[in-house]
Amino acid sequence: MQSWTDQLLGEDFLLMVTRLLVALVLSGLIGFEREINNHSAGFRTHILVGVGACLMMILSLFGFSAFNEVNDNIRFDPARIPSYVISGIGFLGAGTIIVYGGTVRGLTTAASIWTVAGIGLVVGAGMYSVAIFTTLIILISLIFLNHIERIFPRSRTTMFIELVVDETIEINKVLEILEKHHFSITNIEIIRQESSLRKFYIKMNRKDRQHLIKIFEEISQLQGIKSISELNK
User: Fold this and answer.
1) What is the pTM of this model?
2) 123 and 223 inside one domain
3) Of 151, 174, 193, which residue constitutes the final position of a domain?
4) Which pLDDT score is estimated for 23?
5) What is the DSSP letter of 166?
6) ∠ CA(70), CA(71), CA(76), 5° rounding?
7) Which of 63, 70, 116, 126 measures 20 to 30 Å from 26, CA to CA?
8) Helix residue ranges per DSSP H, the chain
């Protein structure tokens, strides 16, 4: 006869807890990288996705075992619930994608969320070594390959800057500064914010960082400028 602890927790409780903790650690590592780089979905979001996916996999593997023991005719597919997780997680990733005029931000974070869900499913299935190896690959891709992209910026021919301004701004003076430094402007988008604030998204040709610093210094001295920053894809 089973003890009350076995009836309450189940025979596989420790195994399930171990898998949930492994999913927490691995997804947390990826989320921490996104967090320190100030992306929209960070530490907590990745942990929730990874642990939640692991929980769904555990449910698929262990949640229906009692029905199989009672009825031999019942058949179930352990991949059914995970398949819905993989397709359904897309809505959360879509929420991290932001469109600024002609540029799109958040694609990498959306992809990391989708991959973390996969890691959670793999951990839930007990494939720890594959999950750890995949986590290492993702971290290498997010951290080191990002530095390589910065070393070779020639493939990017355009850049985007964001201006937060108030009603006192004279946008012509901003354009004069850009033209003085020989930047070619290809697109300008204006979005009205709360009260009197507005956001300007300016798309222009990419030049070296030294020119960009000079531009930021000159523009920041203009009346009505609240903040100026470069947008990264």
Assistant:
1) 0.57
2) no
3) 151
4) 93
5) -
6) 110
7) 63
8) 4-9, 13-36, 43-62, 65-70, 80-88, 90-94, 107-124, 128-151, 171-180, 209-220
